[in-house]
Design goal:
By secondary structure, this protein is an alpha/beta fold. α1 crosses α7 and α4 crosses α6. Strands 3-2-1-4-5-6 form a six-stranded parallel sheet, sandwiched between helices.
Length: about 210
């Protein structure tokens, strides 16, 4: 596939999507990043494609090139703004510390992916990309969606937190008086954008809500 175009966009950010529930968070996050003119590198698992279809009725193509076109058209992205890489595209930028974005969000993050990242596994590109961000001292945000958390899950989260990753469970608040599911989605996506230091106004802030 064509090399990603970097020059006309703000810093690239990697978004990895796994098979946990919460695909709507990923969609909204990508939309907000595109609107903010960031370049977006998208990675997704086979299970994520199933969840997209189950939760949103959205059929994401299995081919990286077709998926890039799909996301670009869906979010009216500029040419080259969205790149999608397959799980074994080891020559993609995200696989190397010399080229990978310094910021990565796994949203939603399955507990299996959480475990693999915490143990330094690199059996697929999502795990490798996260490993690269950790070793390069970049910013890694993980959005697990599971309940309850087992001791194993909590131990993996602790290990990653100690390595500098941000653990941000998909647990939206209600103090902004949400009136729709979209309000709950925006709560979580707004918090992610805050941690990425990206200006956002999709979530009312504490003390400022109407």
């Amino acid at each position: 596939m064509a090399e990603p175009v970097l020059t006309e966009f703000k810093s690239p950010i990697t978004i990895a999507i796994t098979g946990a529930s919460g695909s709507a968070y990923a969609m909204r996050l990508i939309e907000c990043l595109v609107t903010a003119n960031h370049q977006v590198f998208i990675l997704y698992s086979s299970a994520a494609r199933v969840v997209f279809d189950t939760e949103l009725g959205v059929k994401v193509p299995s081919s990286p090139d077709a998926a890039a076109q799909f996301f670009s058209e869906r979010f009216s992205a500029k040419a080259g703004q969205i790149s999608v890489f397959g799980k074994e595209q080891w020559f993609s930028p995200v696989a190397s510390g010399s080229a990978a974005p310094k910021q990565m969000v796994v949203c939603p993050c399955s507990t299996g992916t959480l475990a693999a990242i915490s143990q330094g596994m690199s059996d697929n590109l999502i795990e490798r990309a996260a490993d690269v961000v950790i070793k390069e001292r970049g910013q890694l945000i993980l959005v697990p969606r599971e309940t309850p958390f087992s001791t194993i899950h909590l131990q993996n989260m602790l290990s990653l937190s100690q390595l500098g990753a941000t653990i941000m469970p998909a647990a939206p608040g209600f103090y902004h008086n949400p009136e729709s599911i979209n309000d709950l989605i925006d709560f979580m996506v707004g918090r992610i954008l805050d941690h990425l230091s990206i200006s956002q106004d999709i979530m009312p802030r504490w003390g400022y809500q109407k």
